[in-house]
Design a protein that fits this description.
The chain is mainly alpha-helical and 79 residues long. The protein contains three helices and two strands. The protein has a two-stranded antiparallel sheet with strand order 1-2. Helix 1 packs antiparallel against helix 2.
């Protein structure tokens, strides 16, 4: 079954579970054959997030870098 399009967390979760389910049944995701279930889960998350048009960094909170403003006020977070 093809993956659903959408960027909601519910849709992404269903896509991940579908991909992991196909790995458990067939032993592969698409054309690739991950070595372990953990590798398959990581790959499923990457595929589902890519389908949704988001990056994996958004899921984990992103890379946060603080930069001080020139006027000396509180620092600003850059994602």
């Amino acid at each position: 079954m093809p993956l659903k399009k959408g960027s909601s967390s519910k849709t992404i979760g269903k896509n991940i579970s579908e991909l992991v389910g196909t790995y458990e049944k067939k032993g592969k995701i698409g054309a690739s054959k991950p070595k372990s279930k953990t590798a398959a889960q990581k790959q499923a998350v990457a595929i589902a997030m890519n389908t949704a048009g988001k990056s994996n960094k958004m899921k984990s909170g992103g890379v946060v870098r603080t930069v001080k403003k020139r006027d000396g006020n509180r620092p600003v977070k850059i994602y």
